Amino acid sequence: MPLPQPVSRALSARVTVVAAAVCRAIEAREPFMTIPLSDTGVDRLLDRVEASLKDDLLPVEIFNDEAVFRAELEQIFSKCWVFVAHESEIPKAGDFVQRRIGVDPVIVTRDGKGGINVLSNYCRHRGTQVCQTDSGNSRFFKCPYHGWTYSNDGDLVGTPHLHDAYGERPDPKTWGLLRAPRVATRQGFVFASLAAEGPSLDEYLGGAGWMLDLIAGLHPDGIRVAGPPDRYKVKANWKTAAENFSGDGYHVDHLHWSTQQIHVSQGLEFGCEFGRAYEFEGGHNFLGHAWTKAIHPGFVLWGYPPEIAEHFDLSGLDEAQLHVVTHEPPTVGTIFPNLSFIRTLTPAVPGGPMSMMTSFRQWQPLGPGEIELWSWQFVWDFMSEEEAREAYVTGQFSFGSAGIFEQDDTVAWEGIPRAAASPWMRQAGMRFHFQQGNNSAVDQSPDPAWTGPGIKRDTGYGEHNQLAFYRHWLNVMRGTTTTTTQGS
């Protein structure tokens, strides 16, 4: 879907500026070695995390600690399946986008045979980045330093002054760009793992894959990106954002109350009452809402209008999936470690007509107390240009870089690493409170009638999803889990 020229130029300019700044920030970071956790003090902190989680508490230090951050890069981002792109971003042979896994820049390419490759963006000769562009179409990537050239499947195909410099050609695969050893897709979402062994993507996703199927698979052509991702820095820790989208409905009527005052949203105070928490193994969690109870019995399929909903094919859904999309669909969710989702009905402008927006966002770690937020707006592939544009604008208004909800969230999140860096808070042994609902009169027990994967709770109160996220984080940091989830 082509964007209006002023919007396209503005987005391109913003992406270019932000990308350059991010590259400078990453390149300025000190290189680090793999150091045993016991030698960094992280092991002792993880012991404290484990003991605290038994009381539904969490030590403040984990949100702004250099040793913890470096351990996360080694234990989580170098081993888990991490989202890198959507297939609709690289539809043709030669298409590529530049992305990151942890702090490592990677190039996601579509080669001449249609295969998807996730390549390290470090030249094998001296490590200079061979791709300096966010996206495009190219058969080759040429290092600006000495001219080593690579094909878009990663093979080394050119070395200047070959005979004088080397005498014989270096082996193209041995000296090609490093490749992510495992790349797989689900519903068009491309994930990569830097670990050569481990659970398959479907095993890793488990219940989250089951949920992704009903989010993105209601039409055979699926969903597609509506434009390039927004990218902007936030002085927050990636875990805070991932936890929030795991199922924090408690903040909505307080932090976002201004949206109700300007008639963008309504009934926020009832969000937890009609919340539906979906907790899956593997640190993946979603929060939905019982719209057919909260609004009216006909408010099914997130409230999509009939002209959109008539395109959906629900025949491939199992019984539990059918119930979820019809009555209690997911509103937000997080796929561990750092991919989150939101779908909601909201006006594109205050007082305007309602429109559905779908956003996937990634919390890219830059440092122990800083992230770069990447935000994609998605639309159904069958949508007309006008329908897609409306959904895109709605998403940008609500959850774009200047979105009215987004600004609320990001400002609140920035207080957490400041507290985590506070000498006073550390000396006091400050721990965050995750005991909401422990003595509540609201029934937060798992739904005994639930037949889908994982656990479903018929309330948005409680912090079960967030605790499940952190317990899995702890297990992965300690290497005590294969990150396998239960049945898909």
Descriptive notes:
This protein is 32% helix and 23% strand. The longest helix is centred in the N-terminal third of the chain and has 24 residues, at 5-28. The chain is built from 17 helices and 21 strands. The protein is α+β, with helices and mostly antiparallel strands. The model is unreliable at 1-34 and 483-488 (pLDDT under 50). α3 (66-77) crosses α17 (464-478) and α7 crosses α17. A hairpin with a 5-residue loop joins β14 and β15 (285-289). The strands form five sheets. Strands 12, 13, 14, 15, 16, 17, 18, 19 and 21 form a nine-stranded antiparallel beta sheet that branches. It folds into two domains: 85-194, Rieske Iron-sulfur Protein; 201-478, Naphthalene 1,2-dioxygenase Alpha Subunit, Chain A, domain 1.
Write the layout of secondary structure elements.
Elements: H1 5-28, H2 42-53, E1 57-59, H3 66-77, E2 81-86, E3 95-101, E4 104-110, E5 116-120, E6 135-137, E7 140-142, E8 149-151, E9 156-158, H4 162-165, E10 182-186, E11 189-193, H5 201-205, H6 207-216, E12 223-225, E13 230-234, H7 238-247, H8 252-255, H9 257-261, E14 275-279, E15 285-289, H10 291-294, H11 306-309, H12 319-327, E16 330-335, E17 339-347, E18 354-367, E19 370-380, H13 385-399, H14 404-413, H15 415-421, H16 423-427, E20 431-433, E21 455-457, H17 464-478
Antiparallel strand pairs: 1-20, 2-11, 3-4, 3-6, 4-5, 7-8, 8-9, 10-11, 12-19, 13-19, 14-15, 14-21, 15-16, 16-17, 17-18, 18-19
Helix pairs in contact: 2-17, 3-17, 7-17
